Amino acid sequence: MMKKLRFYMTPLLIIAFLIGSMPVAAAPHGQAETGLVSTQAALNADSSSAERERISEILARADVQEQLLAQGVSLDEVEARVAALSDAEVHQMAEQLEQLPAGAGGVIGALFAVFIILLVTDILGLTDVYPFTR
Q: By CB neighbour count within 10 A (0-12 exposed, 13-18 middle, 19+ buried), where does 77 fall?
């Protein structure tokens, strides 16, 4: 009688243990947060991308590129630096560009702002553009 019970219970227990352990084994490790995105967070992401586009448009102008080359900065490095800026830095740079007057003075100010941002990131060791910061 006991042998017969063991014969039927063993496969059932094995199946029960396998089924019970499947959710644990199949669960992904380090799940990403699946919370809702607030409207403000979505708007901030949109404004950040718009500000990056505005900065890229300014850097695409011929007079700005001439000034950057005159300062000894390659255009590829500037584009890489702008792409590496955080959202807060992009917002700050866009605000500075909006406050500058239109015309040649604005271009020089924008170039100065780009130069300062590149210089600070170079001093912090995040980039390697200016050899005199080493």
A: middle
